Amino acid sequence: MVVSEKIKQYATQLLTAEKTKQSIVPLTESDASLSIKDAYEIQLEIVKMKLDEGRHIVGKKVGLTSVAMQKMLHVDEPDYGHLLDDMVFGNEAIVKVSSMLSPKIEAEIGFVLGEDLVGPNVTFLDVMMATDYIVPTIEVIDSRVEDWRIKLIDTVADNGSSAKVIVGHEKTKVNEVDLRTASMALYKNGELLATGAGAAALGHPAHAIAWLANKLHEFGITLKKGELILPGALSAAVVVNAGDSIEAKFGGIGTVTVHFE
C-alpha cells in the first residue's frame, strides 16, 4: 500500500508526541478532511515505524465496545489498536506514570488465541473455538491528543489510545466460565470503584473479537495464533496517578494488579 505524505506526517506527529510526552491538538481540528480510512492508515504507519525500530506485534485491542462510550463519541461501531511487545507487563507490575501523558485504566478479559482468525466471515463460535485460554487484564489507555479531546478519527489514528497492558497469570478455558455473566470488580487503592460483566463488550467478548477479525480483513490483517486480544472494557475508564494501585478481580477467571509510581 502506498502511503501518502499526509498520512506519514500525521503518524510522525503522533509518534513524536508519544516519545516526547508532548501532546498535540486533535487531528480532526487540524484537518477536517480526514476519514476513518485515513485514521487507520495513520495507525498502521505508526505501527510500521515501531516495527522498523525493532518492536514486535503481540496482539490487538478493541475499543469503544460499550454503548455508553459509543454515544459519548457519537459513533456506532468499535475501533481497534495494536499491542506491541514493549507495552505488555506481568501481574503486580510497577508502571511509571511519567512514561505517559494522561493515563487511565480499563479492566478487560484477555483472549489468547490457539489458532489464527481470518476475516471476513468470522463468527462468535469461530472465536470461541480458536481461543486457547482467557486471562484477567488491565489495559492502560493514554491519549497523545491534548486533554483527551478526541473524536473517533483521533483515537483510531492514535492506536486506539492504547499504552500498556498488564496480564494476570491465571489461565482459564472459555468453556469453564459463562463470559456473558463473568463478573469484574475494579478497585483503586482498596476502594471499589466499578463493577461490570462480560456482556458489557458487545453482549459477549467473543462478539467484539469477531468484529475485530472481520474489520481487520479490510486491511489485509489477521489475528494470529498466540496473540493476546483485548475485547473491550467492562466498565468506564478510571484516571490514575503516581502512587495508585489498581486491582481487577474477575471472579473465577482471576485477579490482576498494577502499581503506578
Structure description:
The protein is α+β, with helices and mostly antiparallel strands and 261 residues long. The chain has one domain: Fumarylacetoacetase-like, C-terminal domain (Fumarylacetoacetate hydrolase, domain 2, Alpha-Beta Complex). Helices cover 26% and strands 29% of the residues. It is built from 7 helices and 13 strands. It has helices spanning 5-20, 27-30, 36-52, 67-72, 124-130, 152-157, 205-217; strands at 57-63, 79-84, 88-90, 93-95, 104-113, 131-141, 162-167, 183-188, 191-197, 228-230, 238-239, 245-249, 255-260. The strands form 2 sheets. Strands 1, 2, 3, 5, 6, 7, 10 and 11 form an 8-stranded mixed β-sheet that branches. A hairpin with a 2-residue loop joins strand 8 and strand 9. Helix 1 packs across helix 3 (36-52). The longest helix has 17 residues, at 36-52.
Short description:
This protein has 261 residues and is α+β, with helices and mostly antiparallel strands. The protein contains seven helices and 13 strands.
Please render the helix and strand layout as text.
Elements: H1 5-20, H2 27-30, H3 36-52, E1 57-63, H4 67-72, E2 79-84, E3 88-90, E4 93-95, E5 104-113, H5 124-130, E6 131-141, H6 152-157, E7 162-167, E8 183-188, E9 191-197, H7 205-217, E10 228-230, E11 238-239, E12 245-249, E13 255-260
Parallel strand pairs: 1-10, 3-7, 4-13
Antiparallel strand pairs: 1-2, 5-6, 5-10, 5-11, 6-7, 8-9, 8-12, 12-13
Mean pLDDT: 94
Just give the CATH class. Alpha Beta
Helix coverage percent of residues? 25-40%
Ranges where pLDDT stays below 50 over 5 or more residues in a row are none
Biggest sheet features: 8 strands, mixed
Q: In the CATH hierarchy, what is the superfamily?
A: Fumarylacetoacetase-like, C-terminal domain
Radius of gyration: 17 Å
How many β strands by DSSP? Answer: 13
Written as H for each helix and E for each strand, in order along the chain, the element string is HHHEHEEEEHEHEEEHEEEE
Structural class from helices and strands?
Answer: alpha+beta
The percentage of residues in β strands lies in 25-35%
Gross morphology: globular
CATH architecture label = Alpha-Beta Complex
Number of helices: 7
